[in-house]
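Q: Sequence in, structure out?
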Amino acid sequence: MDKLTENQLLAYLKSQSRNKIVLYSDTPMDFDAIDLGCILAQAVFNLKDENKLPMKVSAELDAILNAAIVDHSKYGKMLAIANLGILLESGLKQDINRLFEKYSNNNVLFVKWEGETDYENLYFLSKENGIKININNLSHISI
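A: Exactly. Output:
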């Protein structure tokens, strides 16, 4: 990350915004993001009873994310996640906005995003063929 971007990021993290979400793609960071897709897929595979699957997935997801929160020397209390495609599987019925809201209130949420972004939306994979997620109500920065 170059100095200008680093300074902008640190200024954003010191702001009084309700949420702190940092979207990045190829920017090298000094931490490792958890591979949420892989970890959650393993947890879902181990669920024997498919009854109330979305609720069970939510509980597994919360356990995974809460365990991954760390105290970073530069960024403070943070959570870094990658490979979020599984959250968009319709059968799991997960609300990605709720997840972003919940985990960016008391932590900095770093999201390695595999797709395109604009000021108000995330596009999983591409604007033309991807899934559109409106994040207009969430404070975020793209680096």
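DSSP finds four helices and nine strands in the chain.
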